[in-house]
Each structure stands twice: as structure tokens, then as C-alpha cells.
Amino acid sequence: MFTGRLLIILGSFCCAGACTLVITPWLQRVFVRHWVRNRLGIAHPVSNHPSATPMQRALNSVTDFLDAIARDVRSGYSITAAFVQCSDRFPHLQGWTLPVAQHCIRGASLASAFAECNSLDWSPDMHQAARALSIASNGGPGVARVVEHSASVLREQHALREDAAAQTSHIRLSMQVLTWLPLVMCAWLTASNDGARQFLVGSAVGWCCVATGVSLNLAGHRWAQRLVRVSLT
């Protein structure tokens, strides 16, 4: 009887390991595909998908918006006029560009318009682009080069974040498996084994073991999450 249950437990662990080995290559291909697209500057197909949120589309359009402004500046437009013209070409960024463009149409400078319309709802990419455009609007040589450099910096930051996410994909998968597998096995043993159920549920020592195991499991999960967050930042 004990040997049979031991074989069942070993079979469950083997099944979980096999599922992990099957899922891991697929996840790795997905993360690597995202990383390659960002490194090559290829727009992600989800950015224009109808199911994508407006914020996701906006984040993927900030760098293209800066490139469009740089092209208009090289064509002879001022940076303020280029910003107003490009704001109509990127509807996904209307929540960010439209109030600024309206202030510019009323005669305000681009830097003062950004200062008046500054909002906490903007993403970090939008704040960084706004700072770069405000600095470039002060004039001087190389305005288009400053805007293009800001776009390249944003792309590099996105690529680094995707690279970090791809490198930590195995850690996140292992963290999920190691978090849920002991809980599932404990629940299965409690439901199928009378001796384990009487010990874990019917005795104070069993409850202490369950509480200790759950606490250690949660502590390990939080510690692994912290390591992943540190590696991503």
C-alpha cells in the first residue's frame, strides 16, 4: 500500500517535470521573439491589434512619434509646428499630445505647454519624450538630432526590458511550479490518504506543519518575486 502511494507521488512529480520541460521551450521562443523584434526596431503586431489597450498602443507609438517630429524638423518646420502636425497622425497618443498641441496653437511655447499639461497619467516614456522635446524646443543647432537620439534611447530601454524579461522567464516559470506544486500535493494527500488527513487536520502538530509549510512557501515566493523585480529594474 505504501509502495503504491509512493509510486503515485513519484509519478506526479515526473508528470509535473515533463510539463515543465514541454512548456519551457515554447515560453523561451515567445520571449526571444519579443526581444528580437525590439532589438531590430520592428513594431510588435499586438500594438495595432484591436484587443490591445490604448495605453499599449501609445507606448509603442512614442518612438515613432519622435521620429516623425524629427523628419518634419529636417524638412524645415519648427519643432512646435512639427509637434502640432504629428499629433494628428497618431490618434493613440491623443491623450498625451492633444492638450499640448492646443496650448501651442494658442501661442504657447512647446516647453511651457508641456509644463502646463504635465500629468501623472503619462507613462515614463511619455515623460522622457516630453523632457527631450522641451529641451529641443529651446532652439539651437541639432534639434532634429536631439529628437532622434531620444527616440533611439527609448528603443534601447524597451529592448533592455525585453531582454531582462526573456532572461528571467525560466525563473518565473520555476517560481510558479515550486509555489503551487507543494500546495497541490498537500491537498491531494489530504483528500486521498486517511493517515495524512488525520495527522494534518486532526492534530495540533499537523496544523503547525501546515502553517509552517505555507509560511515558508509564501516567503520563498515573495523572495523569488523580489529577485525577479530587481533583475528587471
Mean pLDDT: 76
User: Helical residue percent?
Assistant: over 70%
Low-confidence stretches: 39-59
**Treating each run of at least 4 consecutive H or I residues as one helix, how many helices?**
10
Architecture overview:
There is one protein chain. The protein is an all-alpha fold and 233 residues long. The protein has 2 domains: 45-163; 168-232. 81% of the residues lie in helices and 0% in strands. It contains 10 helices and no strands. It has helices at residues 2-40, 54-74, 79-87, 94-105, 110-117, 124-136, 143-167, 169-192, 194-202, 204-232. Helix 2 (54-74) runs antiparallel to helix 3, helix 3 (79-87) crosses helix 4 and helix 8 (169-192) packs antiparallel against helix 10. The protein is elongated and about 80 Å long. Mean pLDDT is 76; it is low at 39-59.
List keywords for this structure.
233 residues; mainly alpha; 10 helices; 81% helix; elongated
Task: Please sum up the structure shown.
The protein is 81% helix and 0% strand. With 233 residues, the protein is mainly α.
Question: How is the secondary structure organized here?
Answer:
Layout: H1 2-40, H2 54-74, H3 79-87, H4 94-105, H5 110-117, H6 124-136, H7 143-167, H8 169-192, H9 194-202, H10 204-232
Helix pairs in contact: 1-7, 1-8, 2-3, 2-7, 3-4, 4-5, 5-6, 6-7, 8-9, 8-10, 9-10
